[in-house]
Amino acid sequence: MLHSRLFVRRSLRVLVGCTVLALAACGEKPEQSAQEGMQVPVQVFQVEPKPAPIYIDLPGRADAIKDAEVRARVTGIVTEIHFEQGSEVEEGQLLFTIDPAPYEAARNQAQARLLQAEAQAKSAASLANRYERLIKERAVSQQDYDTAIAQHQQAQAEVAGAKAALEAAQIDLGYTEVTAPISGRIGKAEVTEGALVSATQATHLATIQQIDELYIDIRRPAQEFIALRKAIAAGQIDANAQGEAEVTALIDEEEYPEKGRLLFSGVSVDPTTGQLAMRAIFPNPDQYLLPGMFVRVRVEQGIKQDALLVPAQAVQYGASGATTLYVVKDDKAQIAPVKVGQEIDGMKVIEEGLNPDEVVIVAGFQKIRPNAPVAAMPWQPNDPEEDAIAEQKAAPKD
Q1: Which helix (H) or strand (E) is 53 found in, with range?
Q2: Is the pLDDT reported for residue 157 higher than 90?
Q3: Could you give the CA distance from residue 92 to residue 170 in angstroms, rounded to a whole number?
Q4: Dihedral angle at the C-alpha atoms of 219, 225, 226, 227, nearest 10 degrees?
Q5: Are strands 204-221 and 259-269 parallel, antiparallel or unpaired?
Q6: pLDDT of residue 140
Q7: For residues 396 and 319, is the Cβ–Cβ distance under 8 A?
Q8: Strand-strand pairing, 40-46 and 374-378
Q9: 3-class state of residue 2 by DSSP
Q10: 213 pairs with which residues across the strands?
């Protein structure tokens, strides 16, 4: 009897449960159908071909536009240092004094030799003039006259030699005052007062670098250069670029505010690396760039007349690195795999996978899925919702 009652209770529970599930299922179908037919509002951007500059990002290294090593040109003891290390110096500014006493003595000795030579030359000139009159009167022999003329010429040569020796002595004396060969920032003093410096060894005293402008030396793979030439020859890119360049990343990953220009691109390939050498010049008024610093440089290569650009926030990034766009077709959201190129003023260049005049979804991703019906409205730049959407897209999707 007890077993019969338990069986009846269990049967009733199963029947009630099935009835509840059936009613729930019947209630979900109309709601689900309503959701599937609902159009999700999204903001869209219509793609139109337009001219766009083509850039290439390359690593580069900064180098001073002028780099002068100050070295000793005479031998002696450094008696005084006249600059503050790390300061700005002007061309011609006194930097070091080397003991001038030996060179002053050498200059005085050269002056004395010049006076002696001039006195001898004056005496020889008088003798030559006297013999010139006497030879006409046949009062002296021709040999004596020739000897007097030769002695006069020799005395003149000794005067010239003495003048040259005096000039050299004065130059050496001038080298005891070491001046800045260029304007710029001077580094540390490589010697101290009392140090012996040598002219034969050209002792290094200091280094001055002019950094109000800087060179940035760049290298690019030769195959990229060849590909660019082929694209220009095929008419895909116009080679009318102005040679502009910009530093896109410093050590702190910040962009550099000043624009530069490309000076030249090499015509020979380095056989060890397979790369071409390039050089750009950048103004450096605030000295954010320093010699030896490694940076990222963006160099303009040409103009692509029919580039397809979309807002950067329209690009979806997958966990595998794949990039896609949501495009609107037949009022439905469709996924389009694309190949993304460079970014220009917040717009991404789409190299493959997108056709002109297609409509791309820019905002409203969090509410749509593939093949979902959408209600498109024009994209409004700087929309308040974009920041939140961009944050949601930042994390890679599975």
Answers
A1: strand 50-71
A2: yes
A3: 18
A4: 130
A5: unpaired
A6: 82
A7: yes
A8: parallel
A9: helix
A10: 283
Residues 85 and 107 sit within 8 Å (Cβ to Cβ): no
pTM of the entire structure?
Answer: 0.64
Most trustworthy range by pLDDT among 1-10, 109-118, 353-362: 109-118
- What is the spatial distance between Cα 350 and Cα 336, in angstroms, rounded to a whole number? 11
C-alpha pair distances (Å), 275 with each of 16, 98, 244, 269: 79, 47, 21, 5
Residue pair 111/98 in contact (Cβ under 8 Å)? The answer is no
pLDDT in tens, 284-328: 988 888 899 998 888 877 788 888 888 888 888 888 888 988 888
Backbone angles phi, psi at 72, to 5 degrees: -70, 135
For residue 251, the model assigns a pLDDT of 60
Query: Does the pLDDT value for residue 257 go beyond 80?
Result: yes
pLDDT bucket at 148, cuts 50 / 70 / 90: confident
Amino acid at 11: S
Identify residue 90 by its one-letter amino acid code: E
How far is CA 247 from each of CA 59, 60, 67, 312, rounded to the nearest angstrom? 10, 9, 22, 21
Give the whole-angstrom CA distance, residue 177 versus residue 373. Answer: 84
Question: Left if phi > 0, otherwise alpha if psi is -120 to 50, otherwise beta: which for 30?
Answer: alpha
- Assess whether pLDDT exceeds 70 at residue 15: no
- Do 199 and 103 meet the contact criterion of CB atoms below 8 Å apart? no
Spatial contact of 310 and 359, defined as CB atoms under 8 Å apart: no
User: Which residue carries 């003595």 as its tokens?
Assistant: 105
DSSP 328: E
Axis-axis angle for helices 101-136, 142-174 (nearest 10): 160
- The DSSP line for 124-178 is HHHHHHHHHHHHHTT-S-HHHHHHHHHHHHHHHHHHHHHHHHHHHHHHHHHTTEE
Where do the domains of the chain lie, and which CATH numbers do they carry?
A: 55-64+214-306 (2.40.30.170), 100-175 (1.10.287), 308-394 (2.40.420.20)
Mean pLDDT, range 89-105, rounded to an integer: 96
The tokens describing 241, both together, are 């670029």
Residue pair 362/45 in contact by the 8 Å Cβ criterion: yes
What Rg, from alpha-carbon coordinates, does the chain have?
Answer: 43
